[in-house]
Specification:
The chain has 115 residues and is of the alpha/beta class. The chain has 5 helices and 6 strands. It is globular and about 30 Å long.
């Protein structure tokens, strides 16, 4: 399951659902929870977090929240098409992972760091 952080654009949630992925939206279900609560929810649901929030990099790398998988999406809004194919590729690869990873998706590349 993909857990979309509350800052994830609606476009991405709808695209992933249209592509057949199960997406749980923090914005739709528990808006306003803290980043640490988001990480706990991702761990509980055994999913992968999709976020546009740089703070999750700090939580994972500086504070040791390494039990989850994260896809960090970086792009120039609203140019969705520049990163759409890369996101779909990353999600398809890591959707059912049990390996803690931090995946950064940009228009030019996908960078994977195992935690």
């Amino acid at each position: 399951m993909i857990i979309a952080d509350e800052n994830v654009e609606r476009y991405w949630i709808e695209l992933l659902r249209a592509e057949g992925f199960n997406v749980y939206s923090i914005q739709e279900n528990c808006f306003g929870i803290s980043d640490t609560e988001v990480i706990k929810k991702v761990a509980e649901m055994q999913g992968i977090l999709l976020t546009e929030d740089k703070d999750f990099g700090e939580l994972v790398f500086a504070y040791g929240f390494k039990e989850v998988a994260v896809i960090f999406l970086r792009y120039d809004q609203p140019k969705y098409e520049t990163v759409q194919d890369q996101l779909l590729k990353a999600v398809s690869t890591w959707y059912k992972t049990s390996v803690p990873v931090f995946v950064t998706v940009t228009a030019l590349k996908i960078r994977v760091t195992r935690l």
